Amino acid sequence: MLVLLASIFVVHIATVIMLFVSTIANVWVVSDLRAESVGLWKNCTIGGCGDNLSYAGEDALKAVQAFMILSIIFSVISLVVFVFQLFTMEKGNRFFLSGATLLVCWLCVMVGASIYTHHYANSSKNGYEKSHHGYSFILTWICFCFSFIVGILYLVLRKK
Question: Which residue ranges traverse the bilayer (predicted)?
């Protein structure tokens, strides 16, 4: 049981780190023709990154930014709650609060990544003729899977 809790804790920490990286890094879409990439915050070229996103004022991008920040906040809160519950909770109780908080994180990741996928992931809307998904976009969907799995495991687990 201790090994299972430790492994879930490690996956949860990895999820928090990946959420930070995927939200901060500006590599959500990468151009195939030029050395350029676009993220949630900036447009990056070989010369550096600038605040010249063509769709920076759109409400959809602001919603993606908000949901990704909320997912980080809920994931960190869930991690703190899990550590708190680990040391203060009675034996036999489940980690309901940490699991529920992480599932809220999962929901925020799902909404943010889905909005970005719908509005900006295809070539016609991101400003590039040919492009592919960057590592930030892929990390976001990995965090989506990890946060769901760990959230469900928290709800199922009992402290023994």
Answer: 7-30, 63-84, 96-116, 136-157
Please give the Cα distance from 112 to 133 (Å, whole number).
15
Count of domains forming the chain: 1
Which one-letter DSSP state was computed for residue 94?
A: B
Three-state DSSP at 130 gives: coil
- H-state helical runs in the chain: 2-24, 59-88, 96-120, 123-126, 135-156
Under DSSP, the state recorded for 90 is: P
> What's CA 87's distance to the chain center, in Å?
27
- Beta bridge partners, 48, equal 45
Instruction: Decide: 123 and 130 in contact? Cβ < 8 Å.
Output: yes
* pTM score over 0.90: no
Q: What is the CATH number of the domain that holds 123?
A: 1.20.140.150
